[in-house]
């Protein structure tokens, strides 16, 4: 099984422009993500997918593999699919593509491998991660996506609202009564599935919750969820970066 790791990296960001090039303990954020991904023994190739010359040139400077992609992509999934197509045009072939978040500078290679291993089962089309929620703040934060799964580990639904709703119980007691799970935004796809899902039009559920993965579920694609105890910290704002540096850089 040949596996391609793609790190989508845009320069434009409403909350943190140029964050891919921000300094994280002496190295750029995108370089840290790239170097962490290279530590995974299950990735055959790692490529940064960008739409900006500044990121392109920076990755080339530190010796990374990078491709320029279309500026009009609606999301990282589409950017990953373009990289796959370009590499296939060059004669390369991959069975699985991993979409690695470009704003998690300390992502662990074990996390990447956790989304690859399930593809040993031919039934798995898409793979992702979930972690048990331990506090009320995360449970009721609409920016933290929740997921419920069936007995075989496949996602039933994703929501910004806590799911399930615990009837006849105070919200303060919900975590005592049920195990809730947070979705972590690391995805892997079979190559043929990736090519198909980028052709799908946005669905009503997706638009209601603003969650791309609901489009895939609505169209019948299964998403296998692996559980993890580790959560890489994503960077959305300069404040997030400052907090990370205070905790990680010594």
Spans of at least 5 consecutive residues whose pLDDT stays below 50 are: none
Largest sheet: 9 strands, mixed
| Helix/strand structural class | alpha/beta
Based on CA atoms alone, the radius of gyration comes out at: 18 Å
Instruction: Give the integer mean of the pLDDT values.
Output: 93
CATH fold-level topology of the largest domain: Spore Coat Polysaccharide Biosynthesis Protein SpsA, Chain A
Instruction: Report how far apart the termini are.
Output: 39 Å
- Which sequence of SSEs, written as H and E, runs from N to C? EEEHEHEHEHEHEEHEHHHEH
Give the class-level CATH name of the largest domain.
Alpha Beta
Spell out the key features of this protein.
alpha/beta, nine-stranded mixed β-sheet, 250 residues, Spore Coat Polysaccharide Biosynthesis Protein SpsA, Chain A
Please tell me about this protein's structure.
This protein is an alpha/beta fold and 250 residues long. It has two domains: 1-104, Spore Coat Polysaccharide Biosynthesis Protein SpsA, Chain A (Alpha-Beta Complex), CATH 3.90.550; 108-231, Spore Coat Polysaccharide Biosynthesis Protein SpsA, Chain A. It contains ten helices and eleven strands. It has helices at 29-38, 53-61, 76-89, 109-116, 136-139, 174-177, 191-197, 204-209, 213-218, 238-248, and strands at residues 3-9, 23-24, 27-28, 45-50, 66-68, 96-99, 126-132, 146-149, 155-159, 181-190, 223-227. The strands form two sheets. Strands 1, 4, 5, 6, 7, 8, 9, 10 and 11 form a nine-stranded mixed sheet that branches. It has a two-stranded antiparallel ribbon with strand order 2-3. The mean pLDDT is 93.
């Amino acid at each position: 099984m040949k596996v391609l790791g793609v790190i989508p990296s845009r320069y434009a960001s409403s909350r943190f422009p140029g964050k891919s090039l921000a300094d994280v303990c002496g190295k750029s954020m995108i370089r840290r993500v790239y170097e962490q991904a290279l530590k995974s023994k299950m990735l055959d190739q790692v490529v940064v997918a960008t739409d900006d010359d500044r990121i392109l040139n920076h990755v080339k400077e530190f010796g990374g593999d990078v491709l320029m992609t279309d500026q009009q992509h609606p999301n990282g999934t589409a950017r990953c699919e373009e990289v796959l197509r370009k590499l296939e045009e060059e004669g390369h072939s991959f069975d699985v593509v991993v979409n690695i978040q470009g704003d998690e500078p300390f992502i662990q290679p074990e996390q990447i491998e956790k989304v690859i291993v399930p593809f040993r089962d031919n039934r798995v089309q898409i793979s992702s991660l979930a972690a048990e929620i331990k506090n009320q703040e995360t449970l009721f934060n609409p920016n933290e996506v929740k997921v419920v799964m069936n007995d075989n580990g496949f996602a039933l639904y994703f929501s910004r609202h806590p799911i399930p709703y615990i009837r006849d119980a105070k919200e303060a007691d919900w975590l005592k009564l049920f195990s809730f799970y947070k979705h972590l935004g690391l995805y892997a796809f079979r190559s043929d599935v990736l090519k198909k899902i980028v052709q799908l039009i946005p669905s009503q559920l997706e638009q209601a919750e603003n969650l791309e993965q609901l489009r895939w579920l609505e169209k019948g694609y299964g998403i296998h969820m692996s559980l993890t105890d580790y959560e890489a910290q994503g960077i959305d704002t300069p404040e997030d970066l400052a907090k990370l540096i205070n905790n990680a850089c010594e």
